[in-house]
Amino acid sequence: MNQIKLTSLTLRCSFAKTWGKGIFTVASLLWLFWCSSPVCFAQSSPLPTTFKWTSTAPLATPQNGSLAMKDFTCVHYNGKYIVYFTTVDSAGSWGGGMMTFTNWSDMATATQYQMPIGTVAPTLFYFAPKNIWVLTFQWGAQYLTSTNPANPNGWSAPQTLYSGNSLDTTVICDSTNAYLFYAFDDGTIHRASMPIGNFPGTFTNSSIIMTDTAANLFEAVQVYTIQGTTPQYLMIVEASGAAGRYFRSFTATSLGGSWTPLAATESNPFAGKNNVTFTNGNVWTADISHGDIVRNNPDQTQTIDPGNLQFLYQGWTNTHDPSITNYTQIPWRPGLLTSIQPSDDMLIYSDRFNNGWGDGWSWLSPRYPTNNPVYAGTNSMALVPSATFTVWLLKPYTTVDATLYTNLTFWINGGATGGQNISVYGELNGSSSGLPTVSVTAPTNSWKQVIISLASLGVNKTNLTGIGFGNGIHSSLMICD
Prior knowledge:
Elements: E1 4-6, E2 15-18, E3 23-27, E4 31-33, E5 53-55, E6 66-77, E7 80-89, E8 94-101, E9 113-114, E10 123-127, E11 132-137, E12 142-146, E13 159-160, E14 167-173, E15 177-183, E16 188-195, E17 207-211, E18 219-226, E19 233-240, E20 245-252, E21 260-261, E22 276-278, E23 289-293, E24 303-304, E25 310-315, E26 333-339, E27 346-349, E28 367-370, E29 380-383, E30 390-394, E31 407-412, E32 421-428, E33 438-441, E34 448-453, H1 454-457, E35 464-471, E36 477-479
Parallel strand pairs: 5-22, 18-24
Antiparallel strand pairs: 1-27, 2-3, 3-29, 4-31, 5-26, 6-7, 7-8, 8-9, 10-11, 11-12, 12-13, 14-15, 15-16, 16-17, 18-19, 19-20, 20-21, 23-25, 25-26, 28-29, 29-36, 30-35, 31-34, 32-33, 32-35
């Protein structure tokens, strides 16, 4: 289809000029690519060694008299997101909540159900060998079972998960064993195991498998299987840094083996203030705290696709507010991180605008979709300039971190006349002042791919706010993939 994308920064567009009709069309493929060329994976992507994320604003506010909602666990099942979480009220009392919704935009209005018991710091998964759902939680390390995870009142009586002290427990299984991992707010990570045939049951005799400072191995440990690998596991652990809470990451080739740091520092975290870009530049939290990678496979393997990562986390708008001295009074809210992969395309235009991009700032009229001519897909964008100097200006709804990209790539076709010159430029923080332009000449009756480095446009920065295509003449244009 005709598209405009941010990918490895390549802006794939096409220009074709029909001088006889006075039409300069812009067909629908404009891309920004992550690398020098598009990369496609037929199966799973490899696990990155560095991570970058975009974050939503807070997705919901607490209901049922709660002050905070935190410690999220999330699976996507039967077309709905199922989220369990911790609740805290103004008196500092802990409880459990759950909710279901179809789209992330629905989370703000979805009903939040209070759990009949305090399922604090939960982990939800489907235990396929026995066809039951399991919900683990802390304050005594317990678990519940159910046949319907969407029913908050359908869970069994609590059973003992671990016969000892623990904090933020989680369970993951391979083909032979079930493993319990937990933290303790003291710089240690603990592990216990049992034969998978004995689960669900009570773990005993855990051992310390990792040690560091309390700040570096704090809490909220989660462990996942990496999809499509043979095998690889990812552990994330919340740490307390100078700029706020963040997550460190580690990998292993066996759940019973040793763990190697991956992205494990505050400057290069799995997820933290230093690698998260916020919607509309609204940095609403400095803390990226206790949450869960959203799992489309809800089973006991805790499998995630490294090429499609989303992380539901807790943050708060008054991070480091000196008036809040009690942890139970922090008004935690849910936010969603979406990973930016080196192979990703940020689609800008594909027969319509995508990902918050638009052209309402252009000084070029009229402009409209047309199906003749097109390079690919169903529509081009016809631009019919009514003045000598006109610009098709594309802007995103929020600032784009263009350091993640390298090139702007597009296709042009000058039609029977050819030779039209198009000036391409960028904007930083809403201004193109002082930035260079790159001139592109359209060929005659043929399509040509053009690759422009973002560095040559001077916009390989963290604050890209627009890409413009201008013609200094009173004639029409067309851009297409």
